[in-house]
Amino acid sequence: MVMDGADAAVVQRALDARDPLPGTQGFAGELDDALVRDVLGRYPLFSEADDHTAWSFDPTDLDDPDPVPAGHLRDGDDDTQVWTLPNPDRYADDERAVKEVRTAVTESVDAIESTPAIAFSGGVDSAILADRLDGPLYVGGFEGSHDIEAARSTAEVLGRDLTVVEFTHADLERAVPELVAATGRSNPMDIAIALPLYLVAERVAADGHDRLAVGQGADELFGGYAKVAKAPEDPRVDADTVRGATREVIASLPAQLERDVLTLRAAGVEPIAPLLDDRVVAAALRLPGHLLVDGEKRKVALRRAADFLPESVRTREKKAVQYGSLVSRELDRLARQAGFKRRMDDHVGQYIDSLVE
User: Fold this and answer.
1) Taking the complete model, does pTM exceed 0.90, yes or no?
2) DSSP code of 357?
3) Which residues pair with 73 in a beta bridge?
C-alpha cells in the first residue's frame, strides 16, 4: 500500500465508512491493489489507460496516463465512485457560522509542521497564511503588476519581508514547454494560471525550500468568483442560487488541483494547501448564500472569520493570478509578436503549440 497525503489506515476507515471528509488534506494512492483518490482530488493519481495495474502520481512516468477521478476507487478496469461531496444543512446562526469557519481555518493552518515558504499575493487567503506562519513570502509577476503591488502593500501592513520574483518574456518562453510536459496541458488558460505558480516555485526551490504553502481552494469554497456572485444571471454557471453556484465551482477543483500540484512539483516544491483541509471544507459547505456573497462583497464569512488581520488586509480584493501577474497579457503580446494575430482562431494556443514544437 502506497498512499500520498494521508495514512493508509485513515483512508481505509474512510472507505469503510464512506466518509468523504475524514480529517485529511486529501489523499491518493494504492489500497489493497486498488487505486483511490479523495473526494476533491487534492492529490493527482494516474494509471496506464490500457493497464490500470501500472500507475503513478506523476503522469510523465506513464505512456498513456489516465487520471483516477476524484472520489473514486479504480479496481482493475472498473471505476467506482465511493465518496461524494456532502450537502449538509446550512448554518442557522451567522455568528456560529463565522466562528466555525475561523476555528477550521486557524486550526488547519496552525497544524502545519516545519514552516514552509508562502505564496503571497496580498489577498485575504495568503494573508491568513502569512499571519500565522513564519515562512518567507514570495510573489511573482511582471513589473507593475497588480499582484506585486498588492503583495508589497499587504506585507508592509503585516510587517513582513517579501521576495519579489519579476518575470520576463524569456521566462515564459522557457517555462511553457516545461509546463506542457509536466501537466499534459497546453490550453492558454491552464498555462496562464500555471506559469506564475511555476516561476515563483522555481525561485522558492532555488532558495532552498522544499514546501510551499498556497491559498488554493478559498475562492471556490467561500464564494470568491464573480460568476458565483452573479448567479443566476451569469451564463457561466447553471445554478440559480449563490450556494448552488458555489457547489458548481467546487466541482471544478479536481481538475484545477491536478494542474497546480503537478506544476509545483515540477518546479521542485511540494504544495501545502491548508484552506483545503477537510475541516475547512466541512465548514464552508454549511454556509448560507449571504455569507458567501453579500451585494458586492465576496467571501463574506472568510473575511469576517479572519478578524485577526487588519481591516485593510481582510477586505482587499485581488485579481485571478493569470491577470494579477500580467502573465495572460504578456502571453498575448508574445503570441502577436510571433505572428499569431488576434484575428486568428485561438492565437495564444497556437503560439503555445509553436513553443512546444
Assistant:
1) yes
2) -
3) 36, 80
